[in-house]
Amino acid sequence: MAVLFSQAPAIQSFVYVSVLRGKDALSLSSLNFNPGFNGLLLGRSDVSNASSCFWGRLTCGFQNAASVCETSNADRRGTSFSVRWEVNNIIATTVMSGTPVRSTSILVAGATGTLGRQVVRKALDEGYDVRCLVRPRPTPADFLRDWGAKIVNGDLSKPETLPAALVGIHTVIDCATGRPEEPIRMVDWDGKVALIQCAKAMGIQKFVFYSIHNCENHPEVPLMEIKRCTEKYIIEGDLNYTIIRLCGFMQGLIGQYAVPVLEDKAVWGTDAPTCVAYMDTQDIARLTLTALRNKKADRKVLTFAGPRAWTTQEVISLCERLAGQDAKVTIVPVGILRFTRFLARLFQWTNDVADRLAFSEVLSSDAVFSAPMTETYALLGLESKDTTTLEQYLQDYYTSILKKLKDMKAQSKQGDFYI
What we know:
- The structure is a single chain.
- This protein is α/β, with parallel strands linked by helices.
- Helix content is 33%, strand content 21%.
- α1 (116-125) crosses α7 and α8 runs parallel beside α12 (390-408).
- The longest helix has 19 residues, at 390-408.
- The chain is globular.
- The model is unreliable at 1-68, 70-97, 346-351 and 412-419 (pLDDT under 50).
């Protein structure tokens, strides 16, 4: 019997593994998860021809490009998915002694992103030992090290890079998402399933996943359907989880509206009455860390929403008032978005563009991305008055930028000015 990354309760011991070449892959059904042992047991004992360290690759096969999973509810669209773990005769060769797994040890996936960096910073401020899963990149994420976090290279699209990152980890907070140039499914589905399966095998005690509010209502949007399927996959599994649904980031409004208004450039918008309850990512991080410490949030799906929902026109008007100048607004009819998405669907090489336009189309409809927060604040023991309003956030931004411009006596240049 071969043992892969075993873990006893609160103690994580790990083994070096090797690959035997020329053998058949093991299916997921042949893997045995022992709840008491919290390890992954492989029914192989042949120790000959050992060659190199390897982690089995987790793959997902989609039977329909329009959807990623099947649900038992007849009113939800989707198709079945298959998951198989290709493990080429992994065997144990050397067992290391166990080390205690502290409840303060956290791995943040997507730590360099808009939300991820705020989660890292808040966790460090509260005394957590933070490890950041970061893709190998030309420009190192030195700012995370400067804050006090540890960096480990890993890639959700390469499952073999994940186990080493999870050794000694109690909690995983998943803030990762695919880059704009990547197929949506590569990270947001294939990569997430790989991370979840690896977390199960490594005995991770808590898994925090960020989703999108109302994702179940929009199966025609690939990203939202993937979020729904991932939620379902987590809920039906054995992990202790907290799923957090988000409505929108205030930080995203800076480049989209605040900077163009300040620089007297065109602002793109629609005339649709879509309402979004934007939230500051610092508040999202604060609420997340509170939920992490609260047993009442275990195996719960929570929605984090800002104090009020805003339409595009209301956001533009607020930026005009705070910047002290009018915006050059260009209205894009929703019909043009739909037609552009239809054209993009005609060509295979523009399918990913069409997928992202589908999300834009939803945001340009009459949907409302907001939710009451009274019960959530009560559950977490927090006060709503401590949550930043959009007026406060943009006021702080413009005050800071206008002061810098005055001090520098220079024209503004567009950039990432996140407060």
